[in-house]
């Protein structure tokens, strides 16, 4: 990895004893010179006029010159082209000399007139140029050349010189004491095992050659953003004792045709020359998109770059020890030629971390942070389902900022919880003025969500309910945190989840006998769940196992224009009717449960108006449900009494 810049600085204040140059300093001096030349452009004509005017101060008209010659007052003349310089007779001062010019039509009688008056005539060749004329003629060219040199130097300083377009822009990393290793990477045990195999092959190739084992030539890291794909690559650079070339997919592309392909060639040539080595390409989807996709297809600079990359990866020799690694979060748009055996033939999925993985990641990021004794990484990890490694790092950093803002010496659990709410829901809008009537509507709405979350047996445990406005647009939030990891969802869970989502609108209907616009996002989420139940997950009795609509996403424009429809219009209409029935039954269950618990609903509404935020334990106590009773409900214990629709979860 690159060395710490602080270690490179010396007494002169910069690397290698060079004083760091301020950005734009060279350009400011250039602008000073440019202003100087502009002033010179305006001054030179003025000085020229003054000089020429002073030189021709004794210029006379041609008519007077003929008259003086006719009167015998001219002693000698010097003719140079159309310029005539002469001297008057009988005068020795400066006024004795004169200058005049022949007319454009000439004067054939002038020479005879001069001979009659015994005027001495001397001729000289006409001067086609002089120093001042050359300066005036070449000055614009000099200025343009000077401006071009300045622009060329500035482009080179910015690394965008025309002669550097096709140079290799990959960064070469070497192992240092501060480099990241596999010990600094947590939550991706399976991926680390696969990567360690490749690193071991690069360190000890003879072990694999004795067994005639061929390692993958290309490794593709796939996963959502923030899961640690690039971090794994940095750990490889710290673990492997071989040259590690890192480059982003967008670095290959430029506005000039052929630059991307040239950079690919130079990158692979250098890596092969220093073999064994590793090439890492981040954000591969920016250069490896499916060729010919979308309307019209096309063959542009990106496709030329991709073709060159395919050619280089396919041209490895059998004993070549160069391995190509890449990372992307969009494997669905990659060209199939990249994924065939012999190229990126090993795909490693770096998914979202589980509970134990999140705890390990928090321990790594919390090593250098002063944490209070009440901080439990296990509890923090349990309250952050779906967080990536980058999210967890940001969570602890936000908690540290909150603790520093409140002048604390250590980070407490309260700071972490506040940071989690900030990350999930946004900042509090403390200056927002809300009328009492609107606050009551919001409180009633959130109380409906919370009561159903506490009552229904297959929902996630209620964490807290709040009516504090957030800058994300939410005027109130009901937060549920799962007790453990869930990878498969039952039909009962989804139906109860839809009922909880529609509980806000049901509470408004039961208590206020009026409805508001606060359920817009609720309807969208509930409809999405119901549609997936019917069209994707086979949870509809009327449609059974039929998948409606397919599972393709329109990644490219015009991808589905030439494909026939998979379902009839009547089938799609029946799906919409089934979705509507699921939502109607869930709303009916929610409204019935809230009507039966009307007293607890009103009490929770008033508590929210007074406190603005109520914990899940307080809601359970308000409804007369002990934590053990709630746990029995969540476990589906039949001994627990419930106020739910007796007809069943699906309302059939």
Could you characterize what this model shows?
- This protein has 652 residues and is of the alpha/beta class.
- It folds into five domains: 25-49 and 131-164; 56-123, Signal recognition particle alu RNA binding heterodimer, srp9/1 (2-Layer Sandwich); 171-349, P-loop containing nucleotide triphosphate hydrolases (Rossmann fold, 3-Layer(aba) Sandwich), CATH 3.40.50.300; 359-425, Orthogonal Bundle (Helicase, Ruva Protein, domain 3); 436-551 and 567-634, Peptidase M41 (Methane Monooxygenase Hydroxylase, Chain G, domain 1, Up-down Bundle), CATH 1.20.58.
- It has 22 helices and 13 strands.
- The protein has a six-stranded mixed beta sheet with strand order 5-7-8-9-6-10, with helices on both faces. The chain has a four-stranded mixed beta sheet with strand order 3-2-1-4, covered by helices on one side. Strands 12-11-13 form a three-stranded antiparallel beta sheet.
- Helix 9 packs parallel to helix 10 (301-314) and helix 15 packs antiparallel against helix 16.
- The protein is elongated and about 140 Å long.
- Residues 1-27, 159-163, 294-298 and 633-652 have low confidence and may be disordered.
What brief labels describe this structure?
5 domains, Signal recognition particle alu RNA binding heterodimer, srp9/1, six-stranded mixed β-sheet, 10% strand, 652 residues, four-stranded mixed β-sheet, 13 strands, alpha/beta, disordered C terminus, elongated, Rossmann fold, 22 helices
Q: For this structure, what is the CATH homologous superfamily of the largest domain?
A: Peptidase M41
Reported CATH architecture of the largest domain: Up-down Bundle
Average predicted local confidence, pLDDT = 77
CATH class of the largest domain: Mainly Alpha
Radius of gyration: 42 Å
Percent of residues in beta strands: 5-15%
The residue fraction in helices comes out at: 40-55%
Strand order of the largest sheet: 5-7-8-9-6-10
| Unreliable sequence segments | 1-27, 159-163, 294-298, 633-652
Structural class: alpha/beta
Shape call: elongated
* Total domain count: 5
Termini, distance in Å? 63 Å
Number of helical segments with 4 or more residues: 22
